[in-house]
Amino acid sequence: MITILLVDDDPNIRRGLRMNLALEPDFAVVGEAGDGWDALRLARELQPDAVVMDIRLPSLDGLSAAERLRQSQLRCAVIILTLYDEPSNRARARQIGVAAFLSKSASADALKQTLRNITFDKGAQT
């Protein structure tokens, strides 16, 4: 089972992602956050395999939150899922060490495959 924390400031986006991922027997959404600080707190509490996070978040943006997650002792993979698919955001995400960067215009299947690939790779490294 791949456990997932969803992070987006739009509750409708989180709801849609949750509903879509719930259709897969190997996924379990274990939590949701609407800002970067809540994401960090929930990631520590829930220890998910993956955090799917938007860039534009209130109080602490997604890339800053992802950087803090990568610097922590947590072993979760961070996937950036955003409308702001710009070269500068991709470059910063690479520098931080996020597992994947996807545009929200990508298919739901692309996210599902990415989740499966990165958690498989994470497991292989352990």
From TrEMBL:
Q: Which GO biological-process labels does this protein carry? A: phosphorelay signal transduction system
Query: Where is each Response regulatory domain found?
Result: 3-119
Which SUPFAM superfamilies does the annotation name? CheY-like
| One protein family per Pfam | Response_reg
Instruction: For this UniProt record, give its keywords in alphabetical order, as a comma-separated list.
Output: Phosphoprotein
PROSITE patterns on file: RESPONSE_REGULATORY
Q: Which residues carry this modification: 4-aspartylphosphate?
A: 54
> Which SMART domains did the record assign?
REC
Under what name is this protein listed? Response regulator receiver protein
